[in-house]
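Summary for the lay section of the report: proteins are chains of building blocks that fold into shapes. Here we show the chain for Pseudouridine synthase and then a coded description of the shape we predicted for it.
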Amino acid sequence: MRIDKLLEANQVGSKTAIKQLIRDGLVTVDGRLIRQLNHTVDPGFQQICLKGQPLKGPGHQYWLLYKPTGVVTAVRDSQWSTVLDLIPEAGPKVFPVGRLDRDSEGLLLLTDNGQLGRTLLYPEKKVHKTYHVTVKEPLEAGVQQAFAEGIIFADGTRCLPAPLTILTAHTALVEIQEGKRHQVKKMFLACGKKVLQLKRIAMGPLKLDQQAQPGTYRKLNQRELQSLVPYFEGEN
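The coded shape description reads as follows.
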């Protein structure tokens, strides 16, 4: 929630007074002075203080899901099961951050922290996403070079350079920082390679647990929550 809204909930003064308290540098988050009225905070794991006194408030939810294939990345769908159906404990305002195609699998963050969700998807933030890819045709060094230079789709759309690590003749790791629709599949297709399996293993500071199985989920731990704090600030 926004820092000014948290102060309002704690009834520390009028809206005008709250704005002045923040601008005067009397509010801290984990010991750091905050002067932006729309700075996002989470009282669930951060310490927010006014003049050194802790403030209370509701925390957000953060879920790390290993999305299986056959499930759509949506809050609701009339035809298919959704990622929210897999997490019955999730609150009514929880939503998936970004998307994975129905036939793709891997790491998916779900939260009710709207500012965080938007910020992670801002192109300017260049949040890196890593995928393990299996393709039908053999991979050659030329594919690696094409990815490094930036793939160009048939319609003229140019992708940013993307590091590609070839693991075997038919598997690779690719890291992108964009979110074009079906981007990874289309990048390989532009090189004459059909993607058979696509699995996201990392997004920004978050990584898929090596022992995780499709359909499993858990809450983010303290280290992971702290790693997301830089993305709370959005466009401030």
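Put simply, here is one thing we learned. The two ends are 14 Å apart (CA to CA).
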